[in-house]
UniProtKB/TrEMBL annotation:
Gene3D superfamilies: NIF3 (NGG1p interacting factor 3)-like. It comes from Hirondellea gigas. Pfam families: DUF34_NIF3. This is NIF3-like protein 1. Keywords: Metal-binding. GO terms for cellular component: mitochondrion. One of its GO terms (molecular function) is metal ion binding. Belongs to the GTP cyclohydrolase I type 2/NIF3 family. InterPro entries: DUF34/NIF3 (IPR002678), DUF34/NIF3_animal (IPR017222), DUF34/NIF3_sf (IPR036069). A divalent metal cation binds at residues 66, 104, 299, 303.
Length: 338
């Protein structure tokens, strides 16, 4: 399958518009010489060990959940491991694609996988994604504006992306524009009677966004949740900070998750137990003293299981089994409990 077609299908799995504005997602490395993609390797982090594995298993595309290029590279030499990876990819004709926060936000993504730790539950999104509105403002003109459609259109000709809506029956015309063009639009319409200007709110997209909140449908103890997390991740040990009045048999009525470093999403959430990858000592204390039990898996351990449990079967399906989809065996969290 052509790389272009592979990327098109990957963008259907999760729209890159869902990613944080600060993020660096999508196709990050594209070899100059075109070749077919026959094998994709999934990894949480693209380390040099995973790079060796990619070459050994002859993969043509690496899907790295975390973007291996985040801060700008000023050179591509063999001095730094990130530069070496880019150089090796280009030399071997291997492409790199990273979805990162688009997979956190998408319905059925990393956080929907992680929230499974609370068992069968009513799940909602903590910070919903919003639909990007093309037009953010509406300028309503008086119905008595004695201007023809053509005259109004001529006034707006120099305002980019402004849209005049006016029926032939002569009902009140209005102009749609975005925030950055609002002042220019008002200037262009200065000779018209403006009735009012309204601002549209972004519309939340149900089921999409950062973090998940769960109300379990059956009785779950903290021990049940810990057990399920271990089964989901294959981890022998996780870090548990019990809230001051909790023990392992306490019932979890409300749970919340945010994979990776979840503090900004989980702060202030009304839950008995939260699950994330990592958090500082003082943040953990703040939660436990405020009656919230904290379960930490290490950063990438809270994300990695999604690759084999959800993404691998999904990609096999969207590539119609024409591409081999493998999960890295070298990829692992750098921290381990010894
Ligand atoms: Zn992460």
């Amino acid at each position: 399958m052509d790389l272009k077609e592979v990327v098109r299908r990957l963008n259907i799995v999760a729209s890159l518009n869902l990613a944080g504005s600060w993020d660096n997602v999508g196709l990050l490395v594209e070899p100059y010489t075109k070749k077919k993609v026959n094998k994709v390797l999934l990894t949480n982090d693209l380390t040099e060990q995973v790079m060796d594995e990619t070459v050994n298993v002859k993969a043509d595309l690496i899907l790295s959940y975390h973007p291996p290029i985040f801060q700008a590279l000023k050179r591509v030499t063999s001095d730094h491991w990130k530069e070496r990876i880019v150089a090796r990819c280009l030399e071997a004709g291997i492409a790199v694609y990273s979805p990162h926060t688009a997979y956190d936000a998408v319905k059925g993504g990393v956080n929907d996988w992680l929230v499974g730790a609370f068992g069968d539950a009513e799940v909602t999104v903590i910070q919903p994604s919003t639909e990007l509105l093309v037009y953010t403002h509406m300028i309503m003109l008086s119905a008595t504006t004695e201007q023809t459609k053509e005259q109004l259109q001529a006034k707006l000709i120099c305002v980019p992306d402004a849209k005049l809506v006016m029926s032939d029956s002569g009902s009140a015309p209005y102009v749609l524009c975005c925030k950055k063009n609002l002042a220019e639009c008002i200037r262009a319409l200065s000779s018209c009677d403006v009735e009012f200007i309204s601002k549209s709110e972004s519309v939340p997209i149900t089921g999409y966004g950062m973090g998940r909140f769960a109300v379990p449908n059956s009785q779950q103890t903290i021990a049940d949740v810990v057990q399920r997390v271990k089964a989901m991740t294959g981890l022998g040990h996780v870090r548990l900070a019990l809230a001051k009045q909790h023990n392992l048999n306490s019932i979890v009525c409300k749970g919340a998750v945010c994979a990776g470093s979840g503090l900004s999403v989980l702060k202030g959430v009304d839950a008995d137990m939260i699950i994330s990858g990592e958090m500082s000592h003082h943040d953990v204390l703040e939660f436990t003293q405020c009656s919230v039990t904290v379960l930490l898996l290490e950063h990438s351990n809270s994300e990695r299981g999604f690759l084999s449990a959800v993404l691998q079967p999904k990609l096999k399906e969207i590539f119609e089994n024409k591409i081999t989809v493998a999960v890295s065996e070298e990829d692992k969290d750098p921290l381990q409990i010894v």
